[in-house]
Amino acid sequence: MSSSDLKRKLKQNKVMPENLTVRLHRAISWLKCAEENTTNHDLQFLSLWISYNACYAIDEKSENDLTERKQFNEFISKLVSYDHEKRFYNLLWQKFSGPVRLIIDNQFIYKPFWDAQRGENVNWKKLFDKSNEDANRYLSKNEVAKLIEVVLDRLYMLRNQLMHGGATYKSKVNRTQVRDACNILKLLIPIIIDIMMENRKEDWGDIYYPVVS
């Protein structure tokens, strides 16, 4: 679904809680921004990540790696439980040999790899291989939430690289991971938004930056 499809569907939902309406309106607006920047993968990735972030809106006071990843996992588990049509699984199955596999196999967006580069005593290669084996097992056993967690773990590392100035704008050395990340997120985020919209009675939490007149 495109941002215009989702925006139209959002407008048709007359009984949606205001918090959820604002949350999804923001997410859809950044998805639209990503659609308008298809030739600029850096801006497209950042727009897609903001769209994803708008869906669960982490409290800034508690924003750190552990807290954010915990919220990722809880959020994804909830979404998967409402995915009765198995849209997440079908997407991952169809794209596993393409951008999903490429993201998982990319050591440069695997946190322990960079921990080792900084001198920490960590066998990143062993952990990396284990993570990849786990991803294959999750796919074969239909453990969708865990597979999405592996993918998002890689994408969160990429997000940190870009947001904290750890990459050059339009850098040649990270084009592969940025492009593959966009290819995954632009398909994943519309499913997330649509599931949240269809399950408007679920408590998706308060937004931390409400509209103030």
Describe the protein's architecture and organization:
With 213 residues, the chain is mainly α. It has one domain (3-198). It has helices spanning 3-12, 18-35, 41-56, 65-81, 87-104, 111-117, 124-140, 144-163, 175-198. The radius of gyration is 17 Å and the shape is globular. It starts with a helix and ends in a 15-residue tail after the last helix.
Structure summarized in a few sentences:
This protein is an all-alpha fold and 213 residues long. The protein is built from 9 helices and no strands.
How many helical stretches?
9
Number of E strands = 0
- Based on CA inertia axes, which overall geometry fits? globular
Round the mean pLDDT to the nearest integer and report it.
91
Radius of gyration: 17 Å
How are helices and strands ordered from N to C? Answer: HHHHHHHHH
Helix content: 55-70%
Our estimate of the beta-strand percent is: under 5%
Structural class: mainly alpha
Compute the separation of the termini in Å: 32 Å
**Poorly predicted segments:** none
Q: How many distinct folded domains?
A: 1
Main beta-sheet strand count, sense and barrel state: none
